[in-house]
Design goal:
The chain is α/β, with parallel strands linked by helices. It has helices at residues 6-20, 44-47, 59-71, 90-96, 100-103, 133-137, 150-162, 175-178, 212-224, 243-253, 268-280, 304-307, 311-323; strands at residues 3-5, 24-28, 52-54, 75-79, 113-118, 143-145, 167-172, 180-182, 196-199, 204-208, 230-234, 237-239, 256-263, 289-293. It has a 7-stranded mixed sheet with strand order 3-2-4-5-7-6-12, with helices on both faces. A 5-stranded mixed sheet has the order 9-11-10-13-14, with helices on both faces.
Length: 324
């Protein structure tokens, strides 16, 4: 299998599905002739000029158009250039798109995938790197997928596009070109709603998703050097959440640390902590720790490394729960 970057895996998945399903459309800002600001759609406009469509600079228009296209029988894949911009289309995504099946009494579904890179790693300006995934996991009817590896990015993107209901597909901005891995050629899918054991261990479970998985893996390696065996769970999907894998792992290890790029308060990590408390409470040997960004707006570029969780902070949390 050829070694591939995350953004190349996105491009491959889109190319596979464009060739397989002539109902699929790609819409978004600069996705056509430019090939996307990160080149995620590079080369697709030349092959499918009528199905790769540049939109106005309006996230509300992008999301709203996707809803109408889906109800009319198309399969739109909409790109929001950065998740931080998605608030401009929040009403269309949360109050309209996510409720199509419910509001129509099951008569209609909205087969829409919204792709959005997010998170730290490129020293982007304000509003570009915010990790706002929890704002969307709170919307019934919307699935939220957040893979970390090129293999899972391709397989889960193909699964998301084929899902009959809407999916918000979050892509790790830090991993776009920094994370490489083996990706099968051609068509395959990864099941939505199944976590991945990224590293096996016995002393503590570290839970992460998207780019935070790489941070957790580095911290686990550092902990191993100090005699602590760390299991790392890559959630891959936030909604639906793989409760069984979480419960089984923490029941075995008895300790847990949750890592998120978002600010601490009310982040999705709190949902993970609550789930572990409900499912594995009597196995816990120490309080669950969270490692997150501080509760302040995303800082200017040069402060990014101090803002986002890093391996040193995760290691500190690991050692604290194993020494309690």
């Amino acid at each position: 299998m050829p070694e591939t970057t995350v953004v190349e895996a996105v491009n491959q998945a889109l190319a596979v599905e464009m060739a397989r399903d002539d109902r699929m459309l790609i819409i978004g800002e600069d996705v056509g002739k430019t090939g996307g600001v990160f080149r995620a759609t590079d080369g697709l406009y030349e092959r499918y000029p009528k199905r790769v469509i540049d939109t106005p600079l309006s996230e509300g228009v992008i999301a709203g158009s996707a809803i109408g296209l889906a109800i009319a029988g198309w399969v739109p894949v909409a790109e929001i250039q950065f998740l931080g911009f998605a608030h401009n289309g929040f009403n269309q995504v949360v109050d309209q798109l996510a409720r199509v099946r419910y509001r129509s009494g099951g008569r209609f579904s909205a087969q829409v995938t919204i792709r959005a890179p997010y998170g730290a790693g490129v020293r982007a300006p304000e509003l570009h790197s915010d990790a706002f995934e929890a704002h969307f996991t709170h919307a019934p009817g919307l699935k939220v997928v957040a893979p970390s590896t090129p293999h899972d990015v391709k397989g889960l993107l193909l699964a998301s596009i084929r899902d009959p209901d809407p999916v918000l597909f979050l892509e790790p901005l830090r991993g776009y070109r920094q994370v490489r891995g083996d990706v099968p050629e051609g068509d395959y899918t990864v099941e939505i709603g199944k976590a991945r054991i990224a590293r096996q261990g016995t002393d503590v479970t570290v839970v992460a998703w998207s780019a935070a998985v790489q941070v957790a893996l580095q911290a686990a390696e550092d902990a191993q050097a100090q005699g602590v065996s760390v299991e790392v769970i890559d959630l891959r999907t936030l909604v639906p959440l793989d409760v069984a894998t979480l419960a089984e792992s923490v029941t075995r290890t008895g300790r847990a640390v949750v890592v998120q790029e978002a600010p601490l308060t009310s982040g999705f990590g709190a949902e993970v902590v609550a789930t572990i408390q409900e499912e594995a409470f009597f196995s816990l040997q120490a309080p669950i720790r969270r490692v997150a960004a501080p509760d302040v707006p995303y800082p200017v570029q040069l402060l990014e490394e101090s803002y986002a969780p890093n391996a040193e902070r995760v290691l500190e949390a690991i050692l604290s729960v194993t020494r309690d």
